[in-house]
Structures are given as structure tokens and as C-alpha cells.
Design goal:
alpha+beta; Hect, E3 ligase catalytic domain fold; 3-stranded mixed beta sheet; 14 helices; 33% helix; extended
């Protein structure tokens, strides 16, 4: 009706199933339309948009209008009664307002959906989709609770114990409660040839190798409260981050981040068959907490994340050694794997070997030449050392330790290096 008597529709571009949040360059049909703009033989000279909500989300009109104008392509929309005038102030304000209105529609919808999902988990223990945890499989739970979905023939689902993998989960918890480490459990699973989760269900894990059990897989199973029979939601929520910070026009993408336990939503009542009792699950978590007679609260690593290995480039991991903080690099080796005889010897570095040399590195980085030993020796107070470490973190300075010559250098520059001594 909008273009009746003024033109005919010769091509259609509809992005079905694509979010309006995505910029045009990341929607298949819209990207095809944009690609044809530069072709003088494209066969059309105007674009008709029937629903602005789907076409121009947020600031997308401001990004696309100059491109349409550049190639001489008109834009027709019912909201302006016909063709959009690129140079009319009222048209521009209307289009920007419509874009913000389209963006505003999503915010309350997101709040309503998340609130409903939290309530369904907390009060009903409803299974809300996603891949079932290892040890479970999807079972039928009757007609969908929503009458409209039920009329379409959709069914609700629940988690049922998998006869092949549920015993493995129970065995993992039993071994942990018996005092075995997660690494020992991982080695036992691999030695026994038990298929890892991605190998047991390859159709749902096409992006994983399915080669073997890993330490993180076992730790994830031991830390998953869904094995107690309660439904849990919001353990790994989605977050929006820029696709490319250097090109904000590409918009955002969704990434999943692990949420803290305070943000989890756990059903009030059991929702499916439990593979482990709640008491045993809590005991398994407590078994993973202690790290020695003093406990984890007595351990503090001042240089955590600042040290790198000069052999393999990996970050040195914190490791308590003989009652003192230290750092090590096992060059990719995990205690859950069989040792490789050709692997280099593990690198160890005590924290007290590094702290006396921080002042020298700071002075060299400041351009003071050879560090004054008196000034270096004066940096011994804990507060002064803490200030130096904070400054290194603020400047994003990383220290690389070479175990061969036992030197510590800053930012990969050999000129900014100090010897930490022969005492290992």
C-alpha cells in the first residue's frame, strides 16, 4: 500500500530467526542487501521497511542512512508516510526515536523472561532447557504447562538418571568422600577407559574432542548442585560484550560467564532423582576446601598472575612450598595425566627470592640506570612492597623468570633483568 502506484517489489530480504540487536552486517539477508548496494545493476533503487522494530534497533538507522544516501537508494517507511528525507530534521528525529523505542521493547521483555525463569526454577523446579548434565538424560514430563504450547503438541521435560553414566557420577562422589583428590579420580577414570562426557554424548558435544577426562571436568561434576535432585538456574548467565572494540558498529555478542553461588537460583524442593545426597554433596565441597594444616586463609600470594615462565611462556601458578608462598610451572603437565618423560623439569620460584628485587626492576623501568643498592635495600617494608606490586599491576608489567640463568626480566626486555640468586 505504501508504494502503490509508485513502484513494485522486485526483491525481498527477510532475516527470519535473527535478533534485531545484531547489526545489518551480521544478519545474513541484511548483509546480502548491503552487499548489493554498490552494484549499479542490482535492479532496485529503494528499500521499503514495513516494521521499523526489526530493521533499526538503537542507533542502527544512524549507521545505515549515510550508506543508503551514498548509493542513491531511497528508504520508504509507513512511520513517515512515504520516503524518508535524509536532510529533514523531523524525519531524522523520528527515525532515531523509533530506534530507541525498538531498543526499549527488549529491556522489559528481558526482565519479564528472567523473572519468570527464576520463579519457575525456584517454585516449580521446572527444567528450562539446555544440555542435561553428565549422568542424566531427558525424560518426558507430560504436556507443556503453557496451554498454548501444549496445544501445539509440545511436551515438558525432566532429568532422569542415565543408566550408563549415572553410576560414574556416584562413583566420583564416593571417591571424593573417601579422600581421593580430583586428579587421582581423573587418572582412575582414564586408566579404566571410562568414556568422558563428550565421548559419551558426542551429538551434544560436536566441538569437543572426547579424548579423555580432564581435571576440570571432574571438578565441574563435583561442584554441580543439580546432582542433589534440585533444579538450578543462572549458574552461567549470558553477558553482552563488543565483537570488536575497534569497530563498535559490529555490535555486541553474547558470552557465557560463570556466576557466583550467590546469584544461583535453586529450587525449593527436589525436582528430579538425586544421584548424591545433599549431605554428601556438601561434604564433597568441604573436602575440596582445605589446602593444608593452616587452611587457605593463611596463604597469600603477592605476585599471583605477574610471573611467566621463560621456557614455555605460561603463567606461573601459585603453590605453597615448605610453609612459604612460591610459584611453579609444570609446562602444561597436569597431575591428572600420565607424566611425559621428555617434558622439561618443573620450574620453581619462591616469593621471597623475588620481593627483594622488585625495587631494582622498578628503578630500571624508570630509567635510573644501574639501581642504587641503598635505595634497593630500603624497599623492605610490607607497605612499600605492596605499593611496588600495585604499580606493576597498574602498568601491566609482567615478569619472566628464566630457570636456566635464574634471571627475572620485565616486559620481555633483557635490559630490564635482575638475577634472583642461585638459591633455589
Amino acid at each position: 500500500m505504501l508504494v502503490a502506484g509508485r513502484g513494485v517489489i522486485v526483491a525481498e530480504f527477510f532475516d527470519a530467526g535473527q535478533s534485531r540487536v545484531l547489526p545489518w552486517a551480521r544478519r545474513p539477508q541484511s548483509a546480502s542487501l548491503v552487499a548489493q548496494l554498490a552494484d549499479p545493476d542490482r535492479g532496485w533503487d529503494a528499500i521499503v521497511v514495513g516494521e521499523y522494530e526489526r530493521a533499526f534497533y538503537g542507533s542502527q538507522y544512524a549507521l545505515m542512512a549515510p550508506l543508503f544516501e551514498h548509493y542513491g537508494v531511497g528508504l520508504w517507511m509507513p512511520e513517515v508516510g512515504g520516503r524518508v528525507d535524509w536532510h529533514a530534521e523531523d524525519h531524522e528525529e523520528s527515525m532515531l526515536s523509533l530506534g530507541l523505542s525498538s531498543k526499549r521493547e527488549i529491556a522489559p521483555t528481558r526482565v519479564r523472561v528472567r523473572t519468570a525463569m527464576a520463579a519457575q526454577t525456584l517454585e516449580q523446579g521446572r527444567y528450562l532447557g539446555g544440555r542435561p548434565p553428565y549422568g542424566y538424560r531427558l525424560g518426558d514430563a507430560g504436556p507443556h504447562p503453557n496451554k498454548v504450547h501444549a496445544a501445539w503438541g509440545r511436551r515438558a521435560h525432566k532429568l532422569d538418571p542415565d543408566p550408563d553414566t549415572a553410576p560414574v557420577v556416584r562413583w566420583i562422589f564416593a571417591q571424593r568422600l573417601a579422600g581421593h583428590s580430583a586428579a587421582r579420580i581423573t587418572r582412575a577414570l582414564n586408566d579404566a577407559g571410562v568414556p568422558c562426557p563428550s565421548a559419551a554424548d558426542p551429538q551434544r558435544n560436536p566441538y569437543r574432542t572426547g579424548a579423555a577426562w580432564t581435571l576440570r571436568t571432574v571438578a565441574a561434576i563435583l561442584g554441580n548442585p543439580r546432582y542433589t535432585g534440585r533444579q538450578v538456574w543462572n549458574r552461567q548467565p549470558s553477558d553482552a560484550v563488543l565483537v570488536d572494540p575497534a569497530n563498535t558498529g559490529l555490535g555486541h555478542k553474547q558470552v557465557q560467564r560463570w556466576n557466583l553461588p550467590e546469584g544461583w537460583v535453586i529450587s525449593k524442593h527436589p525436582a528430579h532423582a538425586a544421584l548424591v545426597s545433599e549431605a554428601d554433596f556438601i561434604a564433597a565441597q568441604d573436602a575440596a576446601a582445605p589446602r593444608g594444616p593452616a587452611g587457605p586463609a593463611a596463604r597469600r600470594y603477592l605476585l599471583a598472575g605477574l610471573l611467566a615462565c621463560g621456557l614455555c611462556g605460561r603463567r606461573l601458578e601459585s603453590a605453597w612450598s615448605h610453609g612459604r608462598p612460591a610459584y611453579r610451572c609444570r609446562h602444561g603437565y597436569s597431575s591428572a595425566a600420565v607424566p611425559d618423560p621428555v617434558r622439561p623439569k618443573s620450574t620453581y620460584l619462591r616469593e621471597d627470592q623475588v620481593l627483594p628485587h622488585l625495587a631494582a626492576i622498578a628503578i630500571l623501568r624508570a630509567g635510573s640506570g644501574i639501581p642504587d643498592r641503598a635505595r634497593q635495600a630500603s624497599i623492605t617494608a610490607p607497605a612499600q612492597i605492596a605499593d611496588l606490586i600495585d604499580q606493576l599491576r597498574a602498568d601491566e608489567v609482567f615478569l619472566t623468570y628464566d630457570p636456566h640463568d635464574q634471571t627475572l626480566r620485565a616486559d620481555g626486555h633483557d635490559t630490564l633483568s635482575v638475577t634472583v640468586g642461585k638459591d633455589r
